[in-house]
Amino acid sequence: MKTAPVVADILLPQGFAFSSTTAGIKVSGSPDFALVEAFQGAAAAAMFTTNRVMAAPLIVDRDHLKRSRGRMRALVVNSGNANCATGKHGIDGCQAVCRAVADELVCDPEEVFPSSTGVIGVPFPAEKLINAVPTLVSARRAEPDAARHFARAIMTTDTRMKIAASRFKRGKSEVTLFGVCKGAGMIHPRLATMLVYLFSDVEATPAELQPMLAEAVRVSFNRVNIDGDTSTNDTVLLLASGESGVKLSTVAAQFAPALAGVCQALAKQIVSDGEGVRHVVNLHIEGARDDAEASQVAKAISNSALVKTAWAGSDPNWGRILAAVGYSGAAVDPSKVDIFFGRHQVCGKGMAAPFNEAEVHTYLSQPVFDVRVRLGRGKVSGTFWTCDLTAEYVRINADYRT
Amino acid sequence: MKTAPVVADILLPQGFAFSSTTAGIKVSGSPDFALVEAFQGAAAAAMFTTNRVMAAPLIVDRDHLKRSRGRMRALVVNSGNANCATGKHGIDGCQAVCRAVADELVCDPEEVFPSSTGVIGVPFPAEKLINAVPTLVSARRAEPDAARHFARAIMTTDTRMKIAASRFKRGKSEVTLFGVCKGAGMIHPRLATMLVYLFSDVEATPAELQPMLAEAVRVSFNRVNIDGDTSTNDTVLLLASGESGVKLSTVAAQFAPALAGVCQALAKQIVSDGEGVRHVVNLHIEGARDDAEASQVAKAISNSALVKTAWAGSDPNWGRILAAVGYSGAAVDPSKVDIFFGRHQVCGKGMAAPFNEAEVHTYLSQPVFDVRVRLGRGKVSGTFWTCDLTAEYVRINADYRT
């Protein structure tokens, strides 16, 4: 069986309509309010930030998923205000927006899934959104252009929209998966949220979707590290309309890799669109005892300011990587560690390996490069995606008020 | 009983002589080799990096402390080469230097405590050091100027020497404690090591000194976070010559706060001397359940690139601090968290508190300011020292080769 290719394009699954408008939250006047309707409803699976500070929409989402037993009719997203650290007023405002959308679509409010991204701690302007709901709902279309405008309306300081899709056949039927996201980190002050929405016409129950989503997130978004901060609003939502007439259980072997592939494509788009990012790094951890150990080492390396600033300067400074492995908490024997930049080995058994400085500097000057760390502990490997830390990043995140 | 004041000056304890010379490791030609002799030997306590990648001198130190049962005759330090990731050759070279020093001083090699700071992964130039040992040893003097030159010779890219001292009376006798250190982080590529040496003429056993040192380090160096990286060479050494004739057991209530005070003074000097640092932050965590929880929250805040870049811009961005508290791993209820910048409350019960932006921006424009986070969990408080993350830091750490 062939794995379906992932494309950076819009392929629309059946059963979904998209819309966007300007509610007036963003000072720029750009679109800031967006909707996806599943005409016949959809089975939903979702994952949220692990941050204990959780924005109002996430609290409402959890409640709605529980009360609707994982059936959703609409997704509604605003950009420009995170509705976080806003207390009861924020919850009330979020619920009022859901009610307004439900009234227009003639469904239950708990079938509406709200999302917000933007500034933390600013009162949530529910009225502006409620006033814009009729326009938003009436503009919905099951067309690629509408999906494109949706992808743009959820952007904050992203410089480009982020989309990925995959499609495969099952007999005479066809299953489509379309993903869109915004974010994250390293972008704009207080607007570090990652929002990911995945739409498919496969037929599935929420209980079937949830473990499949968890696995796809594990090998994609959970392997991205930009600046080590975890947003208060991070959300990944998967909706399955069932309109293809193809049951997930009959195509799980095709759907799972398509889902992982779309998630990985979106994850890489997020890393490469970080403002201030000059180098995207494919970080391969090899010879780990298990997945947790590979993650632990990757996290220490990709959280290290010293490692990331060296990458910004295309500096083959493997000593900082070795030091990060050493303090990662993994029970690594340093004298068994090998480090490679692309095909160039720079550290062997924990000591300097002879290499051509100029050649490796040139290799590390590319916009995307590979770093490989062999731990010599076991047989588990994993690839993670991270980036450099540049002076531009600091400027963007420090100087926005002054 | 009054706590003895801590001064940023040289007060020499009895029983120690200092020396420094140029062995030719540093390209600049600056002094790079330094010695302290305890004429009659000294009881020693030491703490080392928790990094699993441990430099050769630290491996030798542990062995020497064990074999000498904690009695040291000399401390010998080189700057310019970390002797880390240098394999067996590095261990052999380190031991050869100790033997050369022991030969000159007529003592056992295991009574010599070696330290190195500098570049990782470059072969250790033992011969250069061995050739300089006779000059180094013959230049030793029990004089403030010799101690001052010692403090300078162990510097790498520190911009100023770091010293602190305290002295108190016991009857007709006097106990002196003198500390000197170099480092750390946020300074120069690969030269992020913190080395701390504490000298006293109190009379004590190694077993008495060790827990007292551990407690002083806990409330000082372990509460400093510059860039979250842990060096491979970090070392804290306390030597007690006994020459004052005053037993530690009789002055523990005076010695313990003097030791903590000297360590805190040195820790603050380290933070404020980081290149690229524009703001030193006194981070007060209050209302924690226990010490571990206070540390966990302080670590998340002071590791956050988003928090530290906001501080660089004097931006009263409390949302990033609240988010860091949320992902710290502590079981905090966000709706009980208060945040203050100096006397200005900016967040109350997890929500925005009204404050004057211009006033708070001015407050955060000072070179040193206070951030206070109340967790509402318990009664434990702790103060930590950290700093901002500036574009200058990135430049220093990224561009040194290009």
Question: What does this molecule look like?
Answer:
The structure is a homodimer of 402-residue chains. The first copy, chain A, is α+β, with helices and mostly antiparallel strands. Chain A has two domains: 267 residues, L-amino peptidase D-ALA esterase/amidase (4-Layer Sandwich), CATH 3.60.70.12; 119 residues, Ubiquitin-like (UB roll). In chain A, strands 1, 2, 3, 4, 5, 6, 7, 8 and 10 form a nine-stranded mixed β-sheet that branches. Chain A has a seven-stranded mixed β-sheet with strand order 9-16-11-15-12-13-14. In chain A, strand 13 and strand 14 form a beta hairpin. In chain A, helix 1 crosses helix 2, helix 2 runs parallel beside helix 3 and helix 5 runs parallel beside helix 6. The relative contact order of chain A is 0.14. Chains A and B meet through helix 8, helix 9, strand 14 and helix 11 of A and helix 8, helix 9, strand 14 and helix 11 of B.
Overview in brief:
The structure is a homodimer of 402-residue chains. Chain A has 402 residues and is an alpha+beta fold.
Blueprint of the fold:
The structure is a homodimer of 402-residue chains.
Chain A (H helix, E strand, L loop, with lengths): L5 E2 L8 E6 L11 E16 L7 H12 L3 E11 L5 H19 L6 E8 L6 H13 L5 H10 L8 E9 L2 E10 L12 E6 L5 H13 L5 E2 L9 E6 L7 H25 L7 E9 L2 H13 L1 H8 L5 H10 L10 E4 L2 E5 L2 E2 L4 H7 L4 E7 L5 E8 L3 H8 L4
Features:
homodimer, 402 residues, alpha+beta, L-amino peptidase D-ALA esterase/amidase, Ubiquitin-like (UB roll), 2 domains, nine-stranded mixed beta sheet, seven-stranded mixed beta sheet, 16 strands
